[in-house]
């Protein structure tokens, strides 16, 4: 993994040769601070890749006026015997290459042998192929063969052309700023053309748009149906659409002509799914996200007798047909291969470098999606491997106050009713799902007043902590050959408030309350700093050393895990459910994977998404809808039915009936100060 920063600016001004040490404060972007932006963003990019940082400057011949280009990259070393610094230079042509990604060979695509850097493999494939075609054709053909997450910036020196883009699913972040001198809006004007993995700054927003909350865990404006191109907001930074590769001939552009004129110089090479529609200006899609739209007939739908009596406890039914069993077997095989490809690089690196194997980490709530990933990772790693289950919980004073008020109100009602209340204590974590506590305390944390003294553990007994502990115990019982560490990451309110602007700088250009709530949970979880609690209740401070984190994103979208999927079925039947699932699968690239990449990578770690394997998406898209999800069945059974059946086969009986809960509510990172906030509101810093 790496971070990328490119700037094209007018004139011959030099760029600082060595970016300053990583910042500890977020930059508030304004006309006064704009000259500091390259230095600041370079330091943020450096946090993504602590193993190597390189800056290359070059002059761009121009038909209009002289231009200076700077390309900076940082590297997190995860593959190969030695660090491969970037940007890489092609000696014969003087071209430059920056790559942020991972190549995973599951069934097809560009092959990467064990112990070899995928950066070297891709570089050689692009530049050293003896093709009787143009560089553009070589680049597009190679990118079409990739499997895995990536973002890329390539400068082809002979043609002065810059190519840049992201994988079809948008799993790696890439932001852009187009030259906007002469704009009539209130936006911050800058004639430079920028590309970066991260913004690392807060902007004074102009007129902003509300977020799209059609996804239960929060998709922002880019998720809206039909938004397939560049957004027109006044933000300085914009997320590059993951709809293909873009190129621009740098020696033809005039940076002072404005944004719209610059856009006219951009060429777009889109992803094409059907071979019949492919041309020399397109990329072959690595996956087929077009769903099987066959509407099930009554004879296709099994009748589940055990659920006719609603008093029965939840139980996952077995696949009712041979076709359903075959779909489950293929799903299990493909997801197992996807997990194995994403975790076995850890084992390979340890062998290659003759070092102790680093742990794998999982963003862990104890829910269905992450439990299945943890189990499959356990089956893919050798005995004795370590897996850190990163479980985050926030002390939410608003929830605490509401609970205290409820206790006080009940006490008054009891007294009014003539009941005697003798030393009533606050409910325990197991007694109260909402974690009500009686102490209406907003503690002050300092060196003389440590957190453990003022933040008792029950303040962090949030819903995800409870399910997380249960999931941890189930994994230990089922896969005892693995060293499991349940890392309790407790975030005090004061720390959350103090670091909120920093996280918002990483979320940028997104700006909704929901984006920030989710990002806060992911940033603190992926920091990996917490405590291990032994069976005697003793707490030991722990900091994970894992460089690779697994995320369960993608399961809900493909397998009908959201409440709105059930609502669409109730309102519009199977046709409505299929249509809603198709929307979700089609807009996965706009579901803020770039945001999650920016958040996790800030700690020098890499996030990987096994549910978003290209092979897995193609398979699940072909499976009839009633096999994947059956909204006729109760919540915790019918939603993500196919995944629940897999969980059961993996020995995860408890997890197989776990009901979905959005991370910002499970960890209590949402509505920490204002209960009237909604996810669609924009954040004010």
Automatic annotation (TrEMBL):
PROSITE patterns: GATASE_TYPE_2. Keywords: Amino-acid biosynthesis, Asparagine biosynthesis, Glutamine amidotransferase, Hydrolase. Residues 205-233, 416-436 are annotated as: Disordered. GO terms for biological process: asparagine biosynthetic process. One of its GO terms (molecular function) is hydrolase activity. Residues 2-251 form the Glutamine amidotransferase type-2 domain. Residues 416-425 have a biased composition (Basic residues). InterPro entries: Asn_synthase (IPR001962), Asn_synthetase_domain (IPR051857), GATase_2_dom (IPR017932), Ntn_hydrolases_N (IPR029055), Rossmann-like_a/b/a_fold (IPR014729). This is Adenine nucleotide alpha hydrolases-like protein. It comes from Rhizoclosmatium globosum.
């Amino acid at each position: 993994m790496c971070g990328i920063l490119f700037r094209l600016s007018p004139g011959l001004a030099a760029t600082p040769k060595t970016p300053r040490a990583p910042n500890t404060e977020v930059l508030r972007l304004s006309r006064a601070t704009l000259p500091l932006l390259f230095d600041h963003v370079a330091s943020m990019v450096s946090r993504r890749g602590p193993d190597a940082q390189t800056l290359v400057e070059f002059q761009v011949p121009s038909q209009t006026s002289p231009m200076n280009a700077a390309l900076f990259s940082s590297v997190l070393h995860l593959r190969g015997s030695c660090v491969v610094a970037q940007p890489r230079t092609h000696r014969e042509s003087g071209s430059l290459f920056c790559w942020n990604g991972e190549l995973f060979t599951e069934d097809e695509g560009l092959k990467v042998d064990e112990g070899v850097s995928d950066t070297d493999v891709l570089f050689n494939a692009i530049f050293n192929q003896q093709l009787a075609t143009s560089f553009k054709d070589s680049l597009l053909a190679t990118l079409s063969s990739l499997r895995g997450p990536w973002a890329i910036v390539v400068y082809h020196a002979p043609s002065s052309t810059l190519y840049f883009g992201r994988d079809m699913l948008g799993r790696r972040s890439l932001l852009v700023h187009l030259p906007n001198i002469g704009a009539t809006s209130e936006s911050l004007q800058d004639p430079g053309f920028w590309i970066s993995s991260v913004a690392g700054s807060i902007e004074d927003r102009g007129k902003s748009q509300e977020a799209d909350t059609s996804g239960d865990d929060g998709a922002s404006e880019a998720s809206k149906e039909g938004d397939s191109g560049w957004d027109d907001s006044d933000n300085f930074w914009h997320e590059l659409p993951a709809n293909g590769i873009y190129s621009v001939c740098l020696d033809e552009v005039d940076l002072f002509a404005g944004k719209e004129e610059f856009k006219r110089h951009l060429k777009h090479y889109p992803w094409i799914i059907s071979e019949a529609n492919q041309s020399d200006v397109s990329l072959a899609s690595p996956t087929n996200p077009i769903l099987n739209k066959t509407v099930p007939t009554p004879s296709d739908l099994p009748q589940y007798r055990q659920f006719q009596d609603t008093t029965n406890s939840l139980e996952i039914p077995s696949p009712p047909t041979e076709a359903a069993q075959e779909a489950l077997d293929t799903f299990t095989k493909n997801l197992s291969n996807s997990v194995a490809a994403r975790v076995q690089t850890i084992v390979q690196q340890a062998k290659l470098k003759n070092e102790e194997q680093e742990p794998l980490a999982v963003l862990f709530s104890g829910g269905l999606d992450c439990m299945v990933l943890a189990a499959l990772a356990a089956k893919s790693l050798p005995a004795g491997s370590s897996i850190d289950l990163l479980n985050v919980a926030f002390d939410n004073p608003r929830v605490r106050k509401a609970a205290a008020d409820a206790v006080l109100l009940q006490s008054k009602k009891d007294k009014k009713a003539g009941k005697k209340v003798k030393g009533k204590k606050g409910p325990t974590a197991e007694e109260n799902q909402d974690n009500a506590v009686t102490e209406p305390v907003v503690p002050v944390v300092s060196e003389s007043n440590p957190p453990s003294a003022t933040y008792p553990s029950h303040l962090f007994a949030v819903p995800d902590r409870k399910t997380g502990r249960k999931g941890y115990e189930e994994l230990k019982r089922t896969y005892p050959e693995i060293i499991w560490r349940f890392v309790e990451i407790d975030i005090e309110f004061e720390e959350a408030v103090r670091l909120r602007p920093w996280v918002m700088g990483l979320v940028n250009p997104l700006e909704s309350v929901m984006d920030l709530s989710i990002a806060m949970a992911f940033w603190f979880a992926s920091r990996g700093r917490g405590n291990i609690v032994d069976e005697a209740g003793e707490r030991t401070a722990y900091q994970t050393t894992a460089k690779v984190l697994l995320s369960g994103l993608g399961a809900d979208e493909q397998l009908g895990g959201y409440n709105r999927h059930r609502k669409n079925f109730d309102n519009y039947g199977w046709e409505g459910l299929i249509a809603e699932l198709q929307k979700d699968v089609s807009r996965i690239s706009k579901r803020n994977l770039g945001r999650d990449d920016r958040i996790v990578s800030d700690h020098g770690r890499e996030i990987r998404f096994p549910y978003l394997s290209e092979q897995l998406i193609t398979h699940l898209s072909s499976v009839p809808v009633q096999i994947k999800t059956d909204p006729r069945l109760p919540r915790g059974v019918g939603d993500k039915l196919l995944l629940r059946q897999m969980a059961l086969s993996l020995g995860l009986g408890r997890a197989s009936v776990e009901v979905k809960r959005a991370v910002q509510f499970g960890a209590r990172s949402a509505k920490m100060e204002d209960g009237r906030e909604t996810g669609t509101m924009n954040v004010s810093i």
